[in-house]
Prior knowledge:
The chain is an alpha/beta fold. 41% of the residues lie in helices and 21% in strands. It has 2 domains: 8-272 and 481-493, Aldehyde Dehydrogenase, Chain A, domain 1, CATH 3.40.605; 277-467, 3-Layer(aba) Sandwich (Aldehyde Dehydrogenase, Chain A, domain 2), CATH 3.40.309. Helix 4 packs across helix 5. The N and C termini lie far apart (76 Å). The ligand CCCCCC/C=C/C(=O)O binds at residues 126, 130, 172, 174-175, 248, 271, 304-306, 464, 466.
Amino acid sequence: MASHTETDSARIKDRHAALADSLLPSGPLKHFVGGEWITGSGDNTFESINPTTGEALVRVYEGTKEDIDRAVNAAWEAYEQRWAGATPAERQQVLHMLADRLEARAEDFARLEVLDNGKPIIEAREDIELAVDHLRYFAGAARNIEGKTVPNGELHVQTRREPYGVVGQIVPWNFPLLLAIWKLAPALAAGNTVVLKPAEQTPASLLTYMREVEDMLPDGVVNVVTGSGPATGAPLVSHERVPKVAFTGSTEVGQGVMKAAANTISDITLELGGKSPLIVAPDAAPTDAAEIAVDAMFFNSGECCSAGTRLFVHESSADEFVDAFLDAIGQLRMGDPLNEATDIGPQVSRTEVEKTLHYIGLARDSDADILRGGGTAEEGILAEGCFVEPTVIADIDADNTVATQEIFGPVEVLLEWDDYDEMVARANNVDYGLAAGVVTDDLSFAHRIAADIKAGNIWVNTFNRLPAGQPFGGYKQSGIGREGAMETLWEYTQTKSITMDLGENQ
Ligand SMILES: NC(=O)C1=CN([C@@H]2O[C@H](COP(=O)(O)OP(=O)(O)OC[C@H]3O[C@@H](n4cnc5c(N)ncnc54)[C@H](OP(=O)(O)O)[C@@H]3O)[C@@H](O)[C@H]2O)C=CC1
Ligand SMILES: CCCCCC/C=C/C(=O)O
């Protein structure tokens, strides 16, 4: 069982409510379209819930197809009249200003993420720091969009990289502002304008950020429409005037996005689910490996697409490792995510709690061993909020649903290995291929794993590290495309070839 930070619910609720009052307006937050704050065509609103306290945090409007049409039109107008004509230096300057403004209010934004998503404050600060870094990275990248020349006898080919125009972007709730910036920064750097829909569970930080930076952006360059996936997201990803769509979320919804984009042959970037293996080599020191494994799995309370959810431990050190791993989990402190000492906050919603408990139930039904955790916590705020104990499941077949499907909660599946080839085959035997990790001092072993595991990101002696400039994305059903790096700029542009006949004497 993890230890607890403060759990007194009345005091925690008061603290959260006071902070919400200081950071958010009292009325519903509106859509940001064409540089204006609008209620949209419908009058449906819904609440975003603070998952720590279970209380309403903020109310937002549910966007309709009409609102999406209006946002897409505003984005095209901004593209044609302003942003397409902006020089790389002008785009760079805007991105730097966006970064500076976020950095200046970093603590407020970190706290908003805690209120809306439930992530521990120490991790929310990392989100904001990384978001600032991505804005600065893509500010620089905006100056590096170049074509090439391909001489070929009398033919001279020259290429240009041109933006798509309007990009539709959909982001999930686990890193609300960070993932919005991951998508906005490269799209804007490349010269596109954007219509973005945040997740219905976590709209607060992005809308507050838009309020903060609206004076820096030409009207319509960034448009944010809130709402649910079916009502608001679906008309955006299937829109006939949106030639490029970028989506982060579940593989299941990603498949729908891909089908919708097929209607208009829109280009897509998909960053989807994962079930990433972390491989502990025979030479790994058990306590060091345990520390990496805890971070790989329980970072962001387990709500991370790349989490190291399948832990392959070498038989020779399994007993020692498992003791160190369970001890390290015992040191994790679950509780009020605003508390500096908290390592594990609530899951984002009751739905996610139920989903996680469902998988733990399946493990029990399969006679697996629950070595730690396995339920919700019962004390004070932990019983009222969406808290699930850090859970470790052992003695389960590698092909059991619990060991192959994305759970997206704090649930680790422990698997032992002896034969290298068999371990690699098991590690690769899932539909996902987002990430993997290896703990070893043996460089040859690390390289072998890096070559043999079919995943887009391999971490050696670390996990979940994503500095700007590192291309991030998945193999197999974990996605299409790469985010966070120069590759991403190419995904927000298309190549035009200009072929000139220079005559016979060239
Ligand atoms: N790879 C990842 O990083 C993530 C994976 N997941 C996985 O997905 C599971 C369910 O979480 P959930 O939030 O429902 O994830 P979804 O994949 O449903 O949501 C991700 C985003 O897509 C939107 N969306 C949903 N349906 C559509 C649609 N038809 N067209 C366009 N956009 C749509 C959502 O809107 P809205 O939520 O407002 O309805 C949200 O903004 C989790 O338990 C987890 O396993 C979830 C989040 C991130
Ligand atoms: C500090 C690490 C941030 C991870 C961001 C990438 C995760 C994406 C996802 O879970 O969808």
